[in-house]
Structures are given as C-alpha cells and as structure tokens.
Design brief:
The protein is α+β, with helices and mostly antiparallel strands. Among the domains are: 120 residues, Acyl-CoA dehydrogenase/oxidase, N-terminal domain (Butyryl-Coa Dehydrogenase, subunit A, domain 1); 107 residues, Butyryl-CoA Dehydrogenase, subunit A, domain 2, CATH 2.40.110. It contains 18 helices and 10 strands. A 4-stranded mixed beta sheet has the order 1-4-5-8. Helix 16 runs antiparallel to helix 17. The protein starts with 9 loop residues before the first helix and ends in a 10-residue tail after the last helix. Bound molecules: tetradecanoyl-COA. The site of tetradecanoyl-COA has 31 residues, from helix 6, helix 9 and helix 13. Tetradecanoyl-COA binds next to helix 6, helix 9 and helix 13.
Length: 576
C-alpha cells in the first residue's frame, strides 16, 4: 500500500487540497541592504543606458557593441546573483528580478542578451559547478569580460528537449568528444562559455551530460546569425560541434545528470520572464496613461471614455496579480524551497501572455500613431512575441504544470488502484490507509488562516477553489488513468485554474503584508485592487474547472481532423 504522496511544492499541495500557507505567508520582501544595492544598480544602469543604449540602433544593426557589455560588467550588471567572492553583486533571486525589471524597459535585445548570459547561460555553473569551475569561470562572467550562452535546442529537439541528438562519448582519459549541432542559441556567435547538453552513454545507460564549452575549442563553431522578427541584437546563431574534445574538468555535475541540470536551470530561468514581463508591463501602462490623459477626441480626454477606463483598469489590476505571483515565486526560491518548477512555469506563462495582450491594447489605445515606427510599440511587440514561445513554449509548460501537480494526487489515488478487492482483509487495510490519508489530509490546512481578517471574504473562496482543484483532479485521474498524459485541454484548463488560484493566494499574502505595515484604512487602494483581482481570478478559475467537466472539445477535434483530411480550410462563397 503506498503512502500519501510527499508534498514538495506549494502548488502540488494545492491540488491535493492542502494550502500550506506557512510557505507563502508572510509575503517575502528584500532586506534594506539589498534594496539599497538594487536601487543603486538600477540608477547606474539608467544613467549608463541613457547615453549608450539605443534600442532602435541595436535593432537596425542587429548588434550590441562589445563595449556595452564590458561597461555593464564594470557597473555590476553581468553578475547580479554571483556571490561577491567571485566578483558579483550577490543578489537574491528577488533582487535579481527587480533589477531586470528596469533593464527590460530599455532594450529587448540587451535584456535578453544579459538574461541569456545570467538566467540560463552560466546559471548551471553557479548551481552545479565545482569550486574549481566556479573559480575558473564566474569572475570573468560576473564582470562582463566573458559572455555566456545555453545550448540545448536542436533542429529535431525544441520542446522535446529530452530527445536531443548531439552526442558526447567518454574517452579513456576521462575527456569527452562531442558531435552535433544546436540551433537558435542566444549570444551564439559572441559568447565565450556555453552550458551545452548532449546525449551520452553512462554506465551502459543512454542518458545526458552537461558540458561547459569554451570559445576556441577545436571543432566548435558558431554559424551565421538568424534573421529574426525581433530581439535582433540577441545574436541568435546555430552552433556546430565536430569532434570537439571537452576536458573532464569541463563536465558540469555528474555525467547522467544532464537533463536534470537543464531542467533546473530552466525552472530558475523561467521566472525571469515572469518578473521581466512585470517590468515591461509597468512601462507600457505608464506610456498608456501618458497618452490617454493627454490625447483629446470628441471634446474630452481619451482617459474618460468607458472602454478606455476598462482597459486601463484591467492593466493595473491584472499586473498587481502578476507582480504578486511572480515575486512570491522569487521569494520561495530565496527561502530555499527546492521545488518551484510549477510556480515558475505558471509565472512565465501568465506573465508572457499578459504582457503580449497588454502591448496589443496599449498600441490600440495609441491609435494610428502607435502603428508608426517612430513610436516604440512595433519594436516592443516584435521583441516580445517570442516570449510565449521560448524558454518552454507556453502550452508545453501548461501540460508540464498540470501533469506535475496531478502526479502526487495520482500516487495517492493509486492506493485504490492497487487494492485487490477480492481480498477483504487486504482491501480493508488499504481503504483504511486511504481514508486515514484523507482524514489526515482533512486536518491538514485546507483554508487560509494567515490572511488579514479584512480579506476574509476573498480568502474563503480560495479555499473552495482548492477543494475543487482536488475534486476535479481526482475525477480526471479516475476517468483517464494514465491516459491523462494525452488530455491536453484538461492540462490547459487545470494549469490556468491553478495559476489563478496561486495568484489569489499571492495577492492575499502581499496585501496582508501591506495592511500590517500601513494599516487597513491607509491601504484602501490596494484593498480595492485586491478585491477586484481576486474576484475576477476566482471567476476565471471556476470557469476553467467547469469547462473540464463540460465542453465541446470533441467537436473541435472533429473539425480539426476534417480540415487535416481536406488539407485546407476548404470553403468559399464560390470557387476561384
Ligand atoms: S532555452 C531552451 C528552452 N527549452 C525548453 O524550455 C525545453 C522545453 N521542454 C521541457 O522543458 C521538457 O522537455 C518538458 C518535459 C517539460 C517538455 N523540472 O518524461 P518527462 C523531469 C524538474 O516528462 P519530457 C531558450 O528558449 C521529469 O520529472 N524536472 O520529460 C532561450 C522526469 O524525471 P523523472 C523535470 O516529456 C530562452 C524527467 O525529467 C522538469 O521529455 C532565452 C523526464 O520527464 C522540470 N521542469 O519533457 C530566455 N521537466 O524521470 C532569456 C521534466 O525522475 C531569459 N523533468 O520523473 C531572459 C530573462 C530576462 C527576461 C526579461 C524580460 C523582459
């Protein structure tokens, strides 16, 4: 008989019907010393960028001067989380994200250049490197003397990262010989250090190895940069490996751990797109407010029109939810929670889609002028269109999140599946264990008690939604069993509902902290926004769960299959 599944993450516990509020209350904040450092870095960055970073020019030339990276390295922007002993700023995940909010408002290409470098390029060395590897690589990377990249994606393995085809073969002297190719690698042509993943046989098992490749290794070459829609200064290139000999001291972690390292780096990196979207959204909202309050039509400011206010209200309230959720996640990471992969995937999905819709609405409100290349909207939209695609395509991440949270519940329910009901004694034992597990879980936290009492009307519905998450989770597992892996639309709806529940918890935690600091009376605006966000998020979550129970998916599948059969849309008023 299996035990109730271990709870390893806040969100996984939610789908078990448990609210481990001790993990998310009180809302995390940076200490004053770090906040001061973050302010100084942001202000130094803004001062430098005002004179030396021209987003349009970067886009036109598809290049960022080497000197810019060197200067930013001197300022401290290329080693934000690297410990001070290695020449970095020693920031927490929260501090790192807060600085990136500001970087993101200046140039998409520069942000992603710096993000690829730190969020994923050398993150593996910081997380898994030996002392020797950290000493060898981190000081130059942290000071911007060298630039890093992350080489996972291949022509035949994008989302399906497990099935990469580059292969490394261990040699008798402990070195590795690497062959294969990578595509769409940021900082590809200009990077000096690449965390690279390949398949490898380890102890007779076909698995993965992570290798640190260095510019100048024989047989290691970058191809011509791709001609991309946006982020044109990102130097996105293919990489080629022909019999590249990689010394044993450049193996990252243990051979065989390669996929795990790739996923851990991405789990950590993805939150950067969630928090980065927060920074960009703030900038777009500021631009929108400037425009709608100044521009007058029909004798009044655009700001006063009903449909304009609706859009701006949506922008501000939704951003408050996203910001709360994204920084709750960085707080979980800073608190040392190991398993934050689902929270970080949800923040990435929510942030990147929100900022895309927000940019679209901001451009709409700018009217015809927004369509002109003299305005920043088209560049921003070209730059951010890739966000929902890279670092884990959003629908793939939805599936990942849903299956990850259903797994512990499935393990718990397997108590039932394993039960041999023809053996009354064994069955009784199993049932008792199951009920015991459930009973035990009943006394586990299934409501929010740490939210401020003034928020009780918002906290109650969250507990109801959490109960529903479990009920719906149980029901889809019973209906589909292992076949749940193929139920994409269920993944999508469950992941979206879960993200909205998580965001409500984040808002409750954040606003509780605000009430405690400023008092309830003085925080009326935050309370109003929290009420608005939470009631909308609750409605969305319940709607998604309703749709799991009742939908017209079969019709959609049939229409799609008929279209595949025709090979085209296939209808016309009359033929050409
Ligand atoms: S970088 C390249 C990005 N590429 C990807 O993200 C690849 C996407 N694919 C995947 O993530 C995985 O392949 C998926 C699972 C999720 C599809 N954490 O059989 P499996 C474990 C921990 O389910 P698959 C780029 O784009 C799993 O439990 N573990 O695997 C540049 C299992 O382990 P076990 C995980 O179906 C972007 C094993 O792996 C995870 O093949 C530039 C196999 O699992 C996980 N997440 O795949 C960005 N997933 O056997 C710049 C799986 O023990 C950023 N596992 O149970 C800049 C930042 C700044 C931004 C500012 C903006 C303004």
């Amino acid at each position: 008989m299996s035990e109730p599944a271990d709870v390893t993450s806040f969100s996984k516990a939610l789908v078990l019907g448990e609210i481990h509020e001790e993990l998310v209350f009180p809302y995390p904040t940076s200490d004053e010393a770090e906040a001061g450092k973050v302010r100084a870095l942001i202000s130094a960055f803004r001062a430098y960028a005002a004179d030396h970073v021209d987003a349009r020019r970067i886009d036109d030339e598809a290049w960022i001067d080497d000197q810019v990276y060197r200067d930013l390295g001197e300022i401290g922007l290329t080693g934000l989380y690297v410990p001070e002993e290695y020449g970095g700023q020693g920031l927490s995940q929260t501090g790192y994200a807060r600085v990136f909010e500001a970087i993101g408002t200046v140039s998409g290409s520069l942000t992603i250049g710096l993000g690829v470098h730190q969020s994923i390029g050398f993150k593996g060395i910081a997380l898994y490197g030996t002392d020797e590897q950290r000493e060898r690589f981190l000081p130059d990377l942290a000071r911007g003397r060298k630039l890093a990249g992350f080489a996972l994606t291949e022509p035949n393995a994008g989302s399906d990262a497990y099935n990469i085809e580059s292969r490394a073969v261990r040699q008798p002297d402990g070195s590795w010989v690497l062959n294969g190719e990578k595509r769409w690698i940021g900082n590809g042509g200009r990077g000096d250090v690449f965390t690279t993943f390949a398949r490898a046989e380890v102890d007779g098992r076909d698995t993965h190895v992570a290798l640190i490749l260095e510019k100048g290794m024989e047989g290691f070459e970058a191809g011509e940069p791709y001609d991309t829609m946006g982020l044109r200064g990102n130097n996105l290139c293919p990489l080629y490996f022909r019999d590249v000999r990689v010394p044993r001291e450049n193996v990252l972690g243990e051979p065989g751990q390669g996929f795990r390292i790739a996923m851990d780096v991405l789990n950590n990196g993805r939150i950067g797109l969630g928090t980065g979207s927060v920074g960009l959204a703030k900038q777009l909202i500021d631009m929108t407010i400037d425009h709608v309050t100044e521009r007058r039509q029909f004798g009044r400011a655009l700001a006063d029109f009903d449909m304009v206010e609706d859009k701006v209200g949506w922008m501000v309230s939704y951003l408050f939810g996203l910001e709360s959720m994204a920084y709750l996640t960085t707080g979980l990471i800073d608190a040392g929670i190991d398993d934050y992969s689902v929270e970080s995937a949800m923040a990435k999905v929510t942030g990147t889609e929100f900022v895309w819709y927000l940019a679209n609405r901001a451009m709409q409100l700018k009217g015809g002028a927004g369509y002109m290349r003299t305005e920043p909207y088209e560049l921003i939209m070209r730059d951010i269109r890739i966000f929902p695609i890279f670092e884990g395509a959003n629908d793939v991440l939805r599936s990942y999140a849903a299956l990850s949270v259903l797994k512990p519940l499935g393990e718990e329910l397997e108590v039932l599946a394993d039960t041999d009901l023809s053996d009354p004694i064994g069955a009784l034992g199993a049932w008792a264990g199951y009920l015991g597990g459930r009973l035990k879980r009943e006394v586990r936290p299934d409501r929010i008690s740490l939210a401020h009492e003034a928020l009780a009307e918002l906290a109650g519905p969250v507990a109801d939604q959490v109960k529903r998450l479990r009920a719906v989770g149980e029901s889809v597992l019973r209906e589909h069993g292992k076949g749940i892996v193929n139920q994409g639309m269920t993944h999508k709806r469950l992941a979206d509902a879960l993200a909205d529940v998580y965001a409500q918890v984040a808002v409750l935690s954040r606003v509780t902290a605000i009430f405690e600091e400023q008092g309830v009376e003085a925080s009326g605006q935050e309370r109003f926004i929290a009420e608005t966000f939470c009631s909308r998020a609750a409605r969305r979550a319940n709607l998604e769960l309703d749709k799991i129970e009742s939908n017209d998916d079969e019709r959609m599948h049939s229409i799609a299959r008929l279209a595949y059969k025709r090979g085209k849309y296939g209808y016309a008023l009359f033929e050409d």
